[in-house]
Amino acid sequence: MERNPGMAWTPELVSRIRVNRSAVERRAATVAKRRSVKKDYQTAWLLKAVTCMDLTTLAGDDTPGRVRRLCQKAIRPVRRDILEGLGVADLKITVGAVCVYHNLIATAVDELGDSGIPVAAVSTGFPAGQIPLALKVAQIRESVKAGATEIDIVISRGKVLTGDWAGIYEEVRAYREACGDAHIKTILATGELGTLANVAKASWVCMMAGADFIKTSTGKESVNATLPFSLVMVRAIREYHRLTGYKVGYKPAGGISKAKDAIAYLILIKEELGNDWLDPHLFRFGASSLLGDIERQLEHRLTGSYSAAFRHPAG
User: Fold this and answer.
1) 48 classed as catalytic
2) How many domains is the chain partitioned into structurally?
3) Using CA atoms, how far apart are residues 220 and 9, in angstroms rounded to an integer?
4) CATH number of the CATH domain containing 223
5) 40 counts as catalytic
6) Residue tagged active-site, from 48, 136, 247, 251
7) What's the pLDDT score for residue 314?
8) Peptide bond before 77: cis, by omega within 30 degrees of 0?
């Protein structure tokens, strides 16, 4: 799939954006109610969710040992006995990526080996982004040099709140150049942008600047991924694709911890963007606790009983 190269700065595409909040909230409220996903279909959707997951640890007390355990969970995200019982052990299911801080990139790369699972690194002063631009660019380059093939950057929320869309465009273009062949995911921090119109405008600016993915949140804000935010962002992706022909990925992150919520997001993607986006190249969950609940649901499908959460560690 050809990467989104971005396009020339076109301010009129941003200035004309309007969002009907009431309509967005009404549509978002119907997402989980429009389809009833049960039994084998539910199992299939949950297994799909596992393959689209960025298994993440972004804590101040992260250690090499924790990251190595997380990587082993990424390679074998669902217990072998569950997969065999469901008849899907031959699918060789893995997660979409492992996401860590810069200092632990080398550990993750070494532990994942030839599994084919990419390593993503958060960058540009994550989560607040309150460091000089030169340091942000240098951080990206160092992370790519260390082996990260995906870079999750944060945009300058202050520029959104002051309407400096050209400034955000120039920043993201600089980040994209620093990433080189590594894919860039732009984190909007939707809960801090004030309005749904700002979310839509920030989505467009990042895609115009060459983002491979747009992502809701760092997971550190008081409000993270929601279906209304997601609806606004995926419709921006849809319109950008219609205009340019390039497909941009989407990543909701933060606050998605239940299997039923994962299915709701997959339904949203299917209905708004189509089956092409139901793929880890174009859709990811940013999650640290979601995998445990999905594994519990899969075991329930097999045995009819819910197991304790501690039997399904995430790393």
Assistant:
1) no
2) 1
3) 30
4) 3.20.20.70
5) no
6) 251
7) 64
8) no
